[in-house]
Task: structure prediction
Amino acid sequence: MGASNFTNQVDNVFLFILIVSVVLLIGITTAMVYFVIKYRRSKNPHPVDIHGNVLLEVVWTIIPFFIVMGFFYYGVVDYQEMRNIPEDAMEVEVLGRMWSWMYTYPNGVQTDTLYVPLNTPIKLTIKSVDVIHSFYVPAFRIKQDAVPGLDTRMWFKAQQTGEFQVMCAEYCGDRHSYMYSQVKVLSEESFERWYARAGAEVAALAEAAEGGEADEVARTEKLIQQGRRLIKTKGCIACHTLDGARLVGPTFKGIFGKTETVIADGQEKQIVVDEEYIRRSMLEPNVEIVKGYPPAMPPQGSILNEQEIQAIIEFLKTLKANE
Amino acid sequence: MASHAITEVQHLEENYLQVKSRWRGIFAWIFSTDHKRIGILYLVSSLTFFVVAATIGIFMRLEQLTMGETLMSADVYNRLFTLHGVIMIFLLIIPGIPATFGNFFLPIQIGAKDVAFPRLNLLSWWLYIIGAVLAVTTLFLPGSLPDTGWTFYVPYSVRTGSNVALAVFAAFILGFSSILTGLNFLTTIHRLRAPGMSWHRMPLFVWALYATAWIQILATPMVGITLLLIIFERVLNIGIFDPTQGGDPILFQHLFWIYSHPAVYIMVLPGFGVVSEIIPTFARRTIFGYKLIAYSSLSIALFGSLVWGHHMFVSGESDIANIIFSFLTFFIAVPTAIKVFNWTATLYKGSIALEPPMLYVLSSIFLFAIGGFTGLMQATLPIDVHVHDTYFVVGHFHYTMFGGTIWVMLAGLLYWFPKMTGRMYNKKMAYLAWPFMFIGFNVLYGAMMYMGWKGMPRRYYDHLPEFHTDHVIATVGSWLLYIGILLLLGNLVVALYKGTRAPDNPWGGATLEWQTTSPPPLENFTEEPVVKHEPYHFRKEDNG
Result:
């Protein structure tokens, strides 16, 4: 049983073409080597001119034609199944951006790992917020580009439980080769449990943020928890570390309250990183760039709502420089 | 026995290397309008770029020798693979065979004194060099070398801080160089054939250049427009490709591949032509199925213009477009297969001498066939969904472009070197380089295909542990290949100074270039040749 419903299909077409190709390659190569040996000049000093043979040439025009039409047919049959998305498929939205993936479920849960139930058709709607990425799960034999401004779609049915690698297959910049994620295939029961629990957490956080939590300290604590999760699911840590190391963007460690030199309109100036600066850096990241870093970050307005921005700010406040 | 009747000309006239012009030293080359000198200019410059880009390739392989950072940062690696691709494609493979051997031998093979427009020909070389210099200049400008890959896909190429505009402009100028060469060759073939050189008496190399020239003229302007649009997009922010302004990034891919797919036939068709020259010479018999080989070049040029969408099977292109492009792509396999079968049949009942050019050409057919078969796999939709943008594709196009075109270019070099320089190289060294190149090639690109099938994406600076062994094997293969290339080219450089004098017709060739002196005189022939029979005619008894 293949990891997905497409794994064996694709492997079989591949194997079929591989076998035909190897047979033909061996045939041609053997003929060449045989002729070169048999008709070597020392043994065969008098060549014979043969200008052609219509029958033979017709034969080796028509036979390859039928062979490749066979490949085409075999391919199209499988391809149509790949593109024919079942009506009852569970929908998950995949968002690609430099340089991470985010998955959004119908109940509002957002994750950085794709959790799916076993033997259930999953329909993926794939989007990008910046450049072209390509959502690729090698074990499932599926791939589809994430194109800004265009929703692309594909589907699959996982047939084995376990973890499978997700990669970005379309070159997208410095961290392209680290744009990994996982598909976690759970049994149907485990998936249901995970889905319900994750949904409940989202609802609780939303309620807390609405002011449902009367106690200010407890409310901040909830926000910090939410922020800690958001910087993963929203992809912040693809470029910003928590431990002081330099990646594409400045580290988050000790960032709140720090004095930074930024470039705005080509001029250097000193600013103190406060709530206002962090908020502006998420919504209009290229207006004031920290000196020495590239203007690489896409605006996050379409990814983060006001409540989520608040949660991330609360979390960043907790990342002190000397810890 | 080969016919040497016409070759016994008096060696009175100066050859093209001895002729004095009003320029001295290097200027006698870079201001020369002699098609032979221009051919040599292209040869020296494109082979120099070849060694540079191959060396970049060696550094890229070294980076993959360990996981994480080995030699360079991701930023440097991304610029290097872009540079490797741009140099190999725009500065070596596209101009490679047509501008070097085409320039040198097309007029001689049809019995002409020069190309139709010699000054335009020199302009083509100058545009080529200006394009190359501009591409290198980006290194010293703000933003430095581009980091987009040679495909310059938007929106990345519009967003990146690297210097894309100048590099793209360089490619635009190189496109002009290519168009002008194509125009020149078309006119030359139509207007300057010697008496008796009817269309069906033209050598197959000329037929291949003819088909190529049409693609150069018809397809190259498309990429010119596309590349200009990137510059407009970056500089003026017009929003043709930018979705936030209503543009469409996939439009760029269509425009890019409408040129760049036909361009792969610009790259490979002249190579097919060279194969069709070398095999009859060393089998010393006529080619099998002359017309079918000649017309298959034209049909490849035609179908090759209709299949660009097969680069975009997972791009978001519509399913029906994908199916049509897959269907048309399979068509190309037929004329290509015909060529391979006819070449093989040409060996039948020949009198075969496995001289170095023949050895390299026959192994090239083997390598190209592997490239062709893996191409069929990628034309098959569900397989392409899996292997698209993986090392499988990287392996595939190195088998076709390197195994097909560059490998044949090296065979052509071994074949025509004595004619061009008047000197013979050390054949033992040429044989010695072969196992390094052949084994190294298959280890390197075979390992790439294997890891690609397992799911290793291309243009990855770093890799996961499961691919590590494959990467190490590929890197070792790259060393063997590189040694082979240096042995082969080094041997030729030595032969320039120390080679023995080459006879006029060292291989017993039948086409016109072997009927003149080595090296040829300024106007190629002492008397205008009159052609009385088909090109691969080795029998003395039938001579006119």
In short: The first strand of chain A starts at residue 90 and ends at 97. Chain A has a mean pLDDT of 90. Chain A touches chain B through 81 residues (CB under 8 Å). The CA atoms of residues 262 and 292 of chain A lie 9 Å apart.
